[in-house]
Amino acid sequence: MRVGGGHSAKCSGRRHPGISKQAQIRLVPVDLGSLLRVINISAEQGLRSTPVEIGVAATVSQLPIVRGLAETLVLLSDFTLDEVADIRLAVDEACSTLIAIATPGSTLRCRFTVGDDDLLVHVTGIAATEGLPDQRSFGWHVLRTLTDEVTTTQEPFDQAASGHPTIVEFRRVRGKA
């Protein structure tokens, strides 16, 4: 594959040892000019109101992938750099909260929906035990401080998932000081 500036990159097809199979991204050759057009079209026409979802293993090693996706979405959606940093940290806290109580081997699912003036983040994990995340923790305080609205819910034990589906959802309004 040719990358702008005369440099070349090669995809070996091997998995990176630190990234789960569910989170692997396959590289395919693309014309860089076409890629830029696709990104611009997505930013202008496709991001608003269209949920973007990702599922990763519920482990801390997968956090950079989720943070990176969140950061990319809000950068393409006209949030300020300060808002981008706040959202990235809020996503990290929401995911970390659910990872801390997750059933081993479970999946963390994140859904991002960019509205006309806000971002809604919905994170679902499978808790090993019954009970909501500790809302008195420092991480939860950070999450409340960085967002305009945050809620958590837990469903009854799910036999198929071997745990309690637990959801952390938050909203961040664009342009609000």
UniProtKB/TrEMBL annotation:
Key words, A-Z: Kinase, Transferase
InterPro entries from the UniProt entry: HATPase_C_sf
Molecular function as annotated in GO: kinase activity
Name this polypeptide is given: Serine/threonine-protein kinase RsbW
